Amino acid sequence: MNFRYFLLLILILLNGKLLAQTAPEPARELIHELRKIHTPNGIEVLEEIELNGSKQWISIRGKDKSNPVLLFLHGGPASPNMPLTWVYQSSWEEYFTVVQWDQRGTGKNWASADTTKLAEELSFRALIQDAYLLVDHLRERFQQDKIFLMGYSYGAGIGIRMAARIPQKLHAYIGVGQMAPGNPEQIIYEKVLRLAEESNNQTALEELKALAPYPAADGSTPIRKLLTVRKWSRQFNGGWYGKPDFNLLFSLPSLAPEYTPADIQNLETSSPWISRKILAKGGGGDFPMEFQIPIIFMMGRHDLHTPYQAVEAYFSQLSSPGKNLITFEYSGHVPFLEEPGRFFLELVTTLRPIAGATTKAP
């Protein structure tokens, strides 16, 4: 896993600034009321739990607690999905009990963090150990032998390794914006350059060709070059299909009922700080190639953050009893927001039947 690449990626994403304006309180209250779960066997919980000696926030939502549990591992590092779920997740909650988790120090956890202690603790290993404990917590809490694990972007680097190591606890693994082996920066640059040529965008061509050789062989590619490539990758649908930047994505937390205005402000401070601490300590080593459970990748065709081409190559090489690459033709890096209807349909028709009748843990 190229961790320098992902450190630069998170800094690039945040270069657009988190648009953390406080939304009008009535709007937040309306969204909160609209999403309330009233079913007799439903669950709607926002709480702190302890994982590995650390207090960490989770959200648990579902219309029926007997539905299979789906744990979402957010990306970044330190880019929680909890404040985005009001946009897309409600339909999922009819078929799954969905768990969003703000990872160690991130999001809602930042307000009470001891940054000295946190700086010592943060690492890929710490996150994956926390995730193992959370899986066990959910299996015991809902008395289910297995759960679904969904990893997104950086979280998919954690999730794919968990899928190889604890198959007995998982129905399946779902990778969205999946991390993959290879040289993603080279793939992105070559693809953006080709798109610029195909569209005869002379401004893009001039700026991109001026970056050569790219990426630098010694890994010292300046941030200004990376920013230029990302600017054009977003212009060519590689971030959010049909949108030239992530401004809308960064605006969505302002309406999240789960987050206070202070939580939203903390995101801008905490995300780059946490990312640096985690990525400086390395990662999970080689990507696993053999799995005992179904592996499902849900990828935007145009993704130029975790490039589709690299994921397609990884998928072709891995071994799994039920592997499936689902491609979203009009999506970049956030298919659950770009094509939410089709994404939900795939969850119901492809993923949900794997669980069958939900089994209880012994």
- What is the alpha-carbon Rg in Å? 20 Å
N-to-C CA distance: 36 Å
Number of domains: 1
CATH class, anyone? Answer: Alpha Beta
Structural class, judged by helices and strands?
A: alpha/beta
What's the overall geometry?
A: globular
Strand order of the largest sheet: 1-2-4-3-5-6-7-8
The CATH architecture term is 3-Layer(aba) Sandwich
Fraction of residues in helices? 40-55%
Can you give the mean pLDDT?
A: 90
How does the major sheet shape up? 8 strands, mixed
Strand fraction equals: 5-15%
CATH topology: Rossmann fold
Q: N-to-C SSE series?
A: HHEEEHEHHEHEHHHHHEHEHH
Low-confidence stretches: none
- State the CATH superfamily name: Alpha/Beta hydrolase fold, catalytic domain
Which key features would you list for this structure?
Rossmann fold, 14 helices, 8 strands
Tell me what you see in this structure.
This protein is of the alpha/beta class and about 350 residues long. It has a single domain (about 15-180, about 240-350), classed as Alpha/Beta hydrolase fold, catalytic domain (Rossmann fold, 3-Layer(aba) Sandwich). It has 14 helices and 8 strands. The chain has helices spanning about 5-15, 25-35, 85-90, 115-120, 125-140, 155-165, 185-200, 200-210, 225-235, 245-250, 260-280, 310-315, 335-340, 340-355, and strands at about 45-50, 55-60, 70-75, 95-100, 145-150, 170-175, 295-300, 325-330. Strands 1-2-4-3-5-6-7-8 form an 8-stranded mixed β-sheet, with helices on both faces. The protein is globular.
